[in-house]
Design a protein that fits this description.
Number of helices: 11
Radius of gyration: 20 Å
Number of domains: 2
Largest sheet: 6 strands, antiparallel
Structural class: alpha+beta
Strand content: 15-25%
Distance between the termini: 29 Å
CATH superfamily of the largest domain: GAF domain
Number of strands: 9
Length: 258
């Protein structure tokens, strides 16, 4: 949740390039030049040159008309390299596998990035009715169990600084009042795990626990279940499994340090 120093002066051309790539990643539909220019606030002439450069290097691709733009294949290389080089993703693979084996529901590993959570790894549900997700997908932290588990690792002042002034509502159940969110985070700290009851996606309840391998934790693991399949005994079993498999990593870490 750290920010750059106040005296940091970004390079304008680099900033424009990253803004463009992030926009294409967050909204993967084909974009026309004019729409990109208006959304990014970049003059068409400058943006056209930037797009031509990125297209020639494979970071951006065009349709058959050459007038609509999407993220290129080269972006996959960077994303895959990030995951391949992240030791924690590999370390937690066994935890994700075991949660998936026990419950057959969607399991995710998420990392806090500012006011959002990014999916780093997942295990699909074995059921036909399931939660849609994708590696690299970003979700508002305040509206997810993963995000609340990680926000709860920080004091209220840091949470307020990281979150936007207005908390977006994703469903009728999303917490958008800041005082209510702080109360929810206090409950997470007391319980040791977070619950998202249809706050991100209607019909889905999610349980998450922060991974205790850093302080504050930056990653969390979740299990998502459609409310139509959720029973009190299943909820208790999921929470117990998270405490065993994710919470148990704290003991393993202390043994390694000792």
């Amino acid at each position: 949740m750290s920010t750059a120093p106040d005296d940091f002066q970004p390079v304008k051309s680099a900033g424009r390039t990253l803004d463009l790539l992030e926009l294409l990643a967050d909204h993967p539909q084909p974009w026309a030049l004019g729409d990109l220019a208006r959304t990014l606030g970049i003059p068409k002439s400058s943006l056209h040159g930037l797009l031509r450069t990125l297209t020639s290097r494979g970071w951006v691709r065009t349709d058959e008309t050459g007038t609509r733009f999407r993220l290129g294949l080269r972006a996959l290389r960077v994303g895959a390299a990030y995951l391949d080089g992240d030791d924690l993703v590999g370390l937690l693979a066994g935890v994700l596998d075991e949660l998936s084996r026990r419950f057959g529901e969607a399991v995710h590993l998420g990392r806090l990035d500012g006011d959002q959570v990014v999916y780093l790894a997942k295990r699909e549900s074995v059921h036909r009715l399931r939660l849609y997700s994708a590696i690299g997908r970003r979700l508002p932290a305040h509206a997810t169990a993963l995000g609340k588990a990680l926000l709860a690792e920080h004091p209220e002042q840091e949470v307020d600084h990281a979150l936007p002034a207005s908390l977006p509502r994703l469903t009728p159940h999303t917490i958008t009042d800041r005082a209510d969110l702080h109360a929810a985070l206090a409950a997470v700290r007391a319980a040791g795990h977070a619950v998202d009851r249809e706050e991100n996606t209607e019909g889905i309840t999610c349980f998450a626990m922060a991974v205790p391998l850093a302080s504050p934790a930056v990653d969390a693991v979740s299990v998502s279940v459609p409310v139509s399949r959720l029973r009190p005994d299943l909820e208790a079993a999921i929470v117990a499994a998270l405490r065993e498999l994710v919470g148990g990593l704290a003991q393993a870490r202390s043994m390694l340090i000792a």
